[in-house]
Amino acid sequence: DAGENLKTTTDFVLRVIEDAKTNHQKSICFVTGVPGAGKTLVGLNVAMKQFEKKEPAVYLSGNGPLVDVLTEALARDKVKQETASGGKCTLTSARREVKSFIQIIHHYRDNVLSKLKTPIVDGKLEIDQVKVAKHNQDGYSEVEHVAIFDEAQRLWDQPHLSAWLARKKGVQNFPMSESEFLIWSLNLRPDWAVVVCLVGGGQEINSGEAGIAEPIRAANESFPDWNVFISPQLIAKEYAEGRVNDLVDKNPKVQKNTSLHLATSMRSFRAEKLSTFVEQLLDRDPTAAKLTYAEFCQNYPIVLTRDLNKAKEWLRKKAGGTERYGMICSSQAFRLRPLAIDVRAKPDIVHWFLDDVTDIRSSLFLEDIATEFDIQGLELDWSCLVWDGDFQFSPEKWINRDFVGGKWQNIRSPERQAYQLNAYRVLLTRARKGMIICVPKGDTGNPPDETRKPSFYDATYYYLKSLGLQEA
Predict the structure, then answer these.
(1) Which of 2, 376, 430 is nearest to 153 (CA)?
(2) pTM greater than the 0.85 cutoff
């Protein structure tokens, strides 16, 4: 089902590109999908198809770990294939080729920024032709006809981008959000252009991320001549809390098509209902979550433990052959240090995802832990989610905490609460075949550690157990 769905979506996007080229139009497509449905794969497929036709498209992501892992994995694979067929290819040349169509979005953005007239006057952006000539001599490429933005909901809003540019680049009074600026850069093409936005629902996890409503607003207000193609699911609650609907109704050039939604998860191919279960879990709906889990638990196990060593043992026993496993946790999980887990120690994510069990940097070594920022858009076969006191269950609401100085403080900002909930949504949907959730017991020593009270953990553990999750 996932394979057919991917082909349908890829073919639809390619038709939009061909129509735009033939009819000299400009279009923007929004591809939605459940976690692990293959949105990134659709983007890479489209980029590769255009590459093969010698009509370059650029795949862009603000997710540095994803770009690094994809680039290295494809480069290693190219060297392997060339060697197997008797050819010769160095890893350096393979990386260079891959980077021609896979880029970190900030580099692409900064390339366009470097061509602007400064200072910016009256909120109007203009290209400086003198700078363009200089950059062309230095090998800077023109703006491509097709740009594919992965995790488009994570692009920065205008205040965040403007403040960052003023602070880091000396560019004052920048008038656009990141998504509007990137659409503007494609709009510079005099003939045709296509923007493809790959969108995950409920996955904004950091301050300044504008959400998917922003590029639609930009299309409505700044680029009214652009055709807009969306999936009907884009108006659902998890996409900008349903605010997209109002924006869509205001644009007569919007066309809805079910081909733009990936409904089948490839990541959890044994449990297509995993994303529904996670949604119900986070909505604190134990009755619905228990019924949903019962439908797929035989094929996709989710088990509980309060012992990290037992969790590691479970992972090693479950994984076979070349299957990958690893430990993950929230970036706010600061009180896992007694378990030898320090979220401040960032893993080398390329080695974490791609190297084998003999490398201490590998996820398989079960020493380094990845957070939602390291792993969003990527996946493991089996995961161990270590759940700290930063996100605690209560019957009335989730208790959101931030560790400041030497103690926990409640997070009161609704926006930051939403980011934290989305972080756990990401963490709960990273495994293809199953996961173990480790909820520590907390500290009962004398004197007790006030930052690791058992009460910070017990309610969450018993809530998860009430959903039908068994002890490992």
Answers:
(1) 376
(2) no
| Average pLDDT of the residues in 154-162 | 89
Q: What residues have CB less than 8 Å from 249, skipping those under 6 apart?
A: none
- The Cα–Cα gap between 36 and 272 comes to 10
Residue 139: band (very low, low, confident or very high) from pLDDT cuts 50, 70, 90:
very low
Comparing CA positions, the residue from 389, 351, 390, 391 lying closest to residue 367 is 351
The distance from CA 1 to its chain's CA centroid, rounded to whole angstroms, is 23
Interatomic CA distance for residues 189 and 207, integer angstroms? 32
Mean pLDDT across the chain: 89
Question: Under a CB-based contact definition with an 8 Å cutoff, are residues 227 and 26 in contact?
Answer: yes
Bridge partner residues of 303 (DSSP): 436, 470
Task: Kindly give the residue spans of alpha helices, DSSP state H, lying in 377-443.
Answer: 414-427
Dump pLDDT digits (tens) for 423-463: 999 999 999 899 999 999 999 888 989 999 999 999 999 99
Confirm if 44 and 55 have CB atoms less than 8 A apart: no
Taking a C-beta distance cutoff of 8 angstroms, is the pair 380, 326 a contact?
yes
Residue 35 · residue 345 · CB < 8 Å: no
DSSP bridge pairs for 404 = 407
Q: Are 262 and 395 in contact (CB under 8 A)?
A: no
Q: Helical H runs in 346-392?
A: 349-354, 372-375
Q: What is the pLDDT of residues 295-350, one digit of tens each?
A: 999 989 999 999 999 999 999 999 989 999 999 999 999 999 999 999 999 999 99
| 3-class secondary structure, 304 | strand
pLDDT on residue 29: 94
Q: What is the per-residue pLDDT for 204?
A: 52
Q: Please give the backbone phi and psi of residue 144, each rounded to the nearest 5 degrees, phi first.
A: -70, 160
Question: If you count them, how many residues does the chain have?
Answer: 472
- Measured in whole angstroms, the distance separating CA 212 from the mean position of its chain's CA atoms is 13
Buried b (16+ CB within 10 A) or exposed e, 19-56: ebbeeebbbbbbbbbbbbbbbbbbbbbbbbbbbeeeee
CA distance linking residue 270 with residue 115, whole number of Å: 49
**Residue ranges with strand state E in 280-379:** 302-305, 325-329, 369-370
